[in-house]
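Case 315 in the screening queue. Each case pairs one protein sequence with one candidate compound; here the compound is pyridoxal-5'-phosphate. For every case the pipeline is the same: read the inputs, emit a complex structure as tokens, and attach any notable structural observations.

Predict complex for case 315.
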Amino acid sequence: MFVRGTTEAINLVAKSWGSKHIGEGDEIVISHLEHHANIVPWQMLCAETGAKLRVAPVDDDGQVLLNEYERLLNSRTKLVSFTQVSNALGTVTPARQMIEMAHRAGARVLLDGAQSVSHLRADVQYLDCDFFVFSGHKVFGPTGIGALYGKPEVLADMPAWQGGGNMIADVTFEKTRYHEAPAKFEAGTGNIADAVGLGAAIDYVQKLGIDNINRYEHELLVYAMRELKTIPRSASDRHRAGQDQRAVIRAGGLPDHRSGRGIEPRRHRRAHRPPLRPAHPAPLRSRSDCAPVTGVLQHARRDRPLGGVVRQLAR
Ligand SMILES: Cc1ncc(COP(=O)(O)O)c(C=O)c1O
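Case 315 output:
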């Protein structure tokens, strides 16, 4: 189905599949790595239905603790929804394994592909997810367009979530018959122009080759890790070396070089709060608080959820 993006796709599943299949006492499992788009719709659904939201924790390097995750899964778990790649930490989750574990518990699984589609293969048959969602603008396409994949048998058991033109097979004042998916979930005139743009973006990625992209990005990571480790750690070290180095470790948002020298682990103000919220907050109050390398890295050590890359640099 075409949707506005990942957020709308998750809301569609929550409103449609969730309203039919989630009830009081049921449980929805997400992970500590989730974007707000994969938290808030489930909180809303839980508030409406009396279901419970459970959160699988991650370790100091931002990896999902699989034994803890497994302990959360039980016969009350109706849905597991998690990201394939974390927008805040870059963690690549063991999606296939987590999906398999959820299925063993009898749950359906939504995989958030917003951050994975431009970096990894999104083979929904191999992954065996029940839903897969992504946004066009994350894969070099336009904003305002994205997609929801669902297994046919799962989609067949979901009520329409919006009514209007295109989704109907027949309308009388007494009764309306709907199309099957995907049209059933695409009420109104579609976003044709952006769908064409998304098609062009996907052609571009396929021409480059997703495996080539993946390999090149890995080389960049290895290179960046090696070079960042050569940056002197304290202001006085830097002064002695006569260097004015600057490196930004992006945790999201647009690049912003105003904050001066050194390494700046960025904390996007809105999009990444749960994964980056420290267990014992010593918050960065403003971007300029981030400047000295040593200070930031010491902070990063205390600030548990900042995760693997910063942690490795801090060693
Ligand atoms: C992992 C993840 N999920 C969901 C979203 C929400 O995507 P959108 O705002 O395009 O709906 C984002 C956006 O950054 C994301 O990174």
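Case 315 observations:
- The chain has a mean pLDDT of 84.
- Residues 5-7, 35, 37-38, 83, 87, 112, 114-115, 135, 271 surround pyridoxal-5'-phosphate (CB under 6 Å).
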